[in-house]
């Protein structure tokens, strides 16, 4: 930029610098969007843009940092450089503060009510949970079977699935669906698959989410019970579905609260929430329902898009239990990576 500005007139350089500052402010606003719980009050045309910006806020952080660095070193006059360095330092510290605040929320949530490493005894019952969005049943059949063989889950949750796909998995893995697949829309089918004799009570669909939301009540090997929920919410980045997503976040929180209060055992939600920890509404679900996220890091490894994941839309959330090991796994044909976690009851 220094070489370019040296060949420009003073007026052109001023215009260029002002444009740079405008861009910096815009990028800063983008970087701070995880702190804005405003999606529900914005006009319909604009509202879907906020969840999209929140999911990708780290790009705003990166762009603002690059813009600030360019503004600092873009000038050629020595007497202005010190002032620019000071301003850019404040800007970058603000960026770091915003990012740290968002990360701290996730870290506190991740560490709350968890057992320290090594405190889970050998007599503690546990379940391995696996979840995969099969991309309208387009995930490779052999890939699903190989993933199940590798992870050996006690519970498998498939979203955007079909009766045919579930039948294939049942025949190849020995797991069995606890309820029929209901396809109100092409991507609505959700299935919970478990081993023989594990399911005690079944709800085909709670009706809380637009997509099927089955519930199974399970027994672990040492007798503690667990309620397993297959979740697939709306996406918030489409205008027609945003209102449903907002309502689903509230209804899921209320459902977990009611279920945890009325039943004296663990509740496990697994699936595609179409939400990240940078969405205030999802944080409210996690914190408001006193849930723990099963993830290997504060924000968790990304799951979407599958080829080069940049955001984590898939989650395993637990109440009345604690998380052990967890991870992600690529399954060919799906646009999401599979997730798995060991849940200690």
TrEMBL record:
<feature type="domain" description="Endonuclease/exonuclease/phosphatase">
    <location>
        <begin position="130"/>
        <end position="336"/>
    </location>
</feature>
<feature type="transmembrane region" description="Helical">
    <location>
        <begin position="53"/>
        <end position="73"/>
    </location>
</feature>
<keyword id="KW-1133">Transmembrane helix</keyword>
<keyword id="KW-0472">Membrane</keyword>
<dbReference type="Pfam" id="PF03372">
    <property type="entry name" value="Exo_endo_phos"/>
</dbReference>
<dbReference type="InterPro" id="IPR036691">
    <property type="entry name" value="Endo/exonu/phosph_ase_sf"/>
</dbReference>
<dbReference type="GO" id="GO:0004519">
    <property type="term" value="F:endonuclease activity"/>
</dbReference>
<keyword id="KW-0378">Hydrolase</keyword>
<keyword id="KW-0540">Nuclease</keyword>
<feature type="transmembrane region" description="Helical">
    <location>
        <begin position="85"/>
        <end position="107"/>
    </location>
</feature>
<dbReference type="InterPro" id="IPR005135">
    <property type="entry name" value="Endo/exonuclease/phosphatase"/>
</dbReference>
<keyword id="KW-0812">Transmembrane</keyword>
<protein>
    <submittedName>
        <fullName>Endonuclease/exonuclease/phosphatase family protein</fullName>
    </submittedName>
</protein>
<keyword id="KW-0255">Endonuclease</keyword>
């Amino acid at each position: 930029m220094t070489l370019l500005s040296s060949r420009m007139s003073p007026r052109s350089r001023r215009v260029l610098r002002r444009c740079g500052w405008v861009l910096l402010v815009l990028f800063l606003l983008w970087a701070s969007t995880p702190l804005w719980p405003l999606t529900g009050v914005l006009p319909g045309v604009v509202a879907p843009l906020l969840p999209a910006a929140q999911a990708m806020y780290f790009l705003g952080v990166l762009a603002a940092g690059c813009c600030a660095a360019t503004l600092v070193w873009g000038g050629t006059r020595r007497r202005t450089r010190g002032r620019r360095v000071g301003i850019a330092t404040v800007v970058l510290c603000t960026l770091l503060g915003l990012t740290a605040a968002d990360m701290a929320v996730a870290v506190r949530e991740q560490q709350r009510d968890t057992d320290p490493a090594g405190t889970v005894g050998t007599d503690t019952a546990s379940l391995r949970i696996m979840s995969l969005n099969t991309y309208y049943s387009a995930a490779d059949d052999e890939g699903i079977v190989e993933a199940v063989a590798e992870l050996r889950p006690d519970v498998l949750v498939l979203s955007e699935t079909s009766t045919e796909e579930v039948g294939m998995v049942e025949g190849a893995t020995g797991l069995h669906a606890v309820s029929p697949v209901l396809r109100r829309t092409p991507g609505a089918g959700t299935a919970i698959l478990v081993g023989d004799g594990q399911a005690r009570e079944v709800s085909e669909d709670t009706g809380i989410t637009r997509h099927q939301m089955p519930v199974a009540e399970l027994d672990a090997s040492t007798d503690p019970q667990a309620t397993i929920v297959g979740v697939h919410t709306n996406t918030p980045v489409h205008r027609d579905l945003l209102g449903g997503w907002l309502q689903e976040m509230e209804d899921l929180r209320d459902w977990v609260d009611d279920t945890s209060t009325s039943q004296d055992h663990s509740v496990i939600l697994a699936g595609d929430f179409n939400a990240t920890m940078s969405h205030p509404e999802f944080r409210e679900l996690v914190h408001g329902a006193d849930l723990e996220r099963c993830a290997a890091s504060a924000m968790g490894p990304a799951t979407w898009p599958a080829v080069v994941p940049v955001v984590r839309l898939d989650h395993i959330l637990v109440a009345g239990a604690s998380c052990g090991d967890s991870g992600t796994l690529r399954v060919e044909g799906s646009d999401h990576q599979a997730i798995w976690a060991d849940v200690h009851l």
